[in-house]
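Box 4.2: Ligand-aware structure prediction
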Amino acid sequence: MVSVEDYGEFETEWCPGCGNFMILKAVKRALAELGKSPDEVLLTSGIGQSSKLPHYLKCNVFNGLHGRSLPPAIGAKVANHELTVLAVTGDGDCYGEGGNHFLHNVRRNPNITLIVHDNQIYGLTKGQASPTSELGMKTKVQTHGVFNTPLNPLSLAISLDCSFVSRGFAGDVAHLTELIKKAIQHKGFSLVDVLQPCISFNKLNTFSWYSERVYKMEEGDHSPDDRIKAFERSMEWGERIPLGVFYVNEKPTFEDHLDVLKSGTLVGNKSDPQKVDELLDRFI
Amino acid sequence: MSTDLVIKVGGAAGQGLQTIGVALAKTFKKSGFNVFATQFYLSRVRGGHNTFQVRVSDEPIRAMPEKVDILIALDEESIEEQIEEMTDGVIIFDNEVIKVNDVKEPFFHVPMLKIAKDVCGNKIYSNSVASGAALGLMCFEFDYLAKVLTEAFKKKGDEIVDNNIKAARAGYDYAKKNFPSDCKFSVSEPSDKDGRMLIAGNDAVGLGALAAGVQFLAAYPMTPSTGVMTYVAANADDFNVVVEQAEDEIAALNMVLGASFAGARAMTTTSGGGFCLMSEALGLSGITETPAVIFLSQRPGPATGLPTMTEQGDLQFVLTAAQGEFPRCVLAPGTPDDCFYMTAEAFNIADKYQIPVFIMSDQYLADSLFTCQRFDPSKVKVERYLMSDEELADTDEYKRYEITPTGVSPRAIPGQAGKVVVADSDEHNEYGHIDQTIENRILMNEKRMKKLDLLREDMEPPHQYGPKDARITLVGWGSTYGPLMEVVNILISEGHSVNHLHFTHVFPLPLEATKNILGNSETIVCVENNATGQFAKLLEYETDLHVSENVLRSDGKPYSPESIIRSMREKGLI
Ligand SMILES: Cc1ncc(C[n+]2csc(CCOP(=O)(O)OP(=O)(O)O)c2C)c(N)n1
Ligand code: SF4
């Protein structure tokens, strides 16, 4: 039996009251409830306040570069597909600096879970606009207010036929825990975009701003098998903001296509230099 | 040297000059000769003017001289380019393909298309006619070419094999019968029996990686490095390798680091611009102490530069790429043997010191074909330097960055023996967690840099060729090995006092050995395929030696022995 305590308690560098704490709680609970022990789990991250999360629970960690949480996650997953791999990032990290990796890993469909702390702002660098910042939001850089169209990560993921697309809210740990569990259990690339209030820099999208708007799709009639409906739902933003699983599409994962993984993990293979001898004949 | 001939095929991309060139190279090799072949091509799939040059000799050769004995001209440009140099050579051409107004020496008309149509009913066999004609001029034993063509086309069926042989034979007979001076380039066959290989640098690197047990290769295509990626991909299923084409080079090296962190032997392949994109991840390898092998095939920059040509212009960049300071290792093979054994060595060094290791090649080495002895895989040792499960089980809480006297921390991988492994790109403590205190920074920086001292001891001394106490020492690194050896041979035969010192282990330099050998040299001349003498700078910086003169070339072309000697004369060195 694995318990939340097995994941330990660490001192954090987050501002008291930040939504990141709730996401950390949900991640630990989800992993414990799924019976994953810390040594089976690898968390990769980029750079940002959000990307420090892996340091705050006991597990394998690869805390890499800004924007680059996904590539090491894929590399590690291929090397040892028995690991449960989660990539933890921020909206700037994942949709800005690392946007290309986001697009192409949706296409690749490795069996990993991507958790994006979407606070609609750059936290660590003290409050510049992120790709998901609202139109009109003024910052020290965007002095006339944001005028670039915000990126909609859910619509983007659905348009790329991402195999699992969901949104959670840091203010609802129980719901977020369930979402993360589903995402981990889903075989394929799973996006969990988490609305995360940044109390220090985002004065627009606050806890109460989100709380007044969010609703759970499970409580209605949304069916995640319907891509068009999911796409429509993903565009709902404003007065009402849907939470839950938007879209699920079971399809072969990246690893499923790799025959070499059928007999075991890559790292488990022993190599034999002598084997190249047969190849040398072709140059004779 | 009794036999030393150069055959050049020139034409547009898509005309099949490579088919002709490779067939000839294989034919000479099969008969026991030493072969060296280079390619010059442009960054386009069709058209342009490309060449494929084959040199055949009974002495070991690894350079291309400027003279041409037989030119197979498939376009007019080949003739314009070469006519000045054709003192004693022959130009084979077909007047159905190109116009030559005054057909007299050195021109020799071979109706390749007509012969192909007459004997096989199809002009596509004209390339085999051309190969046959070249051999006819040399009065070479025809059977070798027949064997080569059989091997090359056997997958396509007997009819195709027969037609190629018939066409080649007809070309051969035509040349023997119609060329005015009989057997002008007659060669005597060398005695040593075959069993050797004919191989390009890129394939040798690919073989080295497979021998070393590479498990994961992520890369983004870029000439002239792509050949390694495709070679490994072609054999990936048999060798349990995953090859992934990344979305960009940033992803490629980051993927490699993830795989390596998780315990796989991992590498990437790239060229200049691609490596620029990798430089941040290079630092990530440095600070997280994650082994990585980076195959970097140079081409002339900056930016897109000359995509298909050659240069050794990236050394200073590779030595300093990425912010901050951390140990790295640079290996620069000079021959296909080096490519094979040093690629395998690169993986062991990366694992031993937990650092990024470069294999620096260039278009010249990557694409040229060399004859060499069959590689011996039993000489390749796979050394992973990983903790055993038992060792790990004995530790209480695993410290990925444990401070040790050598700076090298025992390495475990995620999921091993129930422990967790933490790596971080921030400055971190022994456990891998973020720690920005000054005391910790000092400890960790020292720990990482210390590895360089130990690594230096593993670096092989440079290879000396020629008389020990010569007046002039020509210093080279990487792919200039062949041309420089030949320069030394030529100059010694002319009575000059010169030798050659060649570096394959470029960084960290094997200081003691270098100083011992070069300490007494009167005149050190660095010869490099770049504009600023990048290795010379490294040598002067790392040792207190003085480089007297640089011989440099950065026009996109590799060194011919003649061009080095010309430069030396111009500089008054000889
Ligand atoms: C290559 C690079 N560019 C810029 C930075 C500086 N930087 C660090 S975090 C960050 C943005 C953080 O925003 P986000 O990813 O949304 O994470 P948050 O801090 O809001 O959780 C930036 C620009 C960096 N570390 N590396
Ligand atoms: S800056 Fe914002 S996101 Fe970062 S810890 Fe503080 S409140 Fe949270």
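In the box above, the bound molecule is iron/sulfur cluster. The CA atoms of residues 135 and 147 of chain A lie 6 Å apart.
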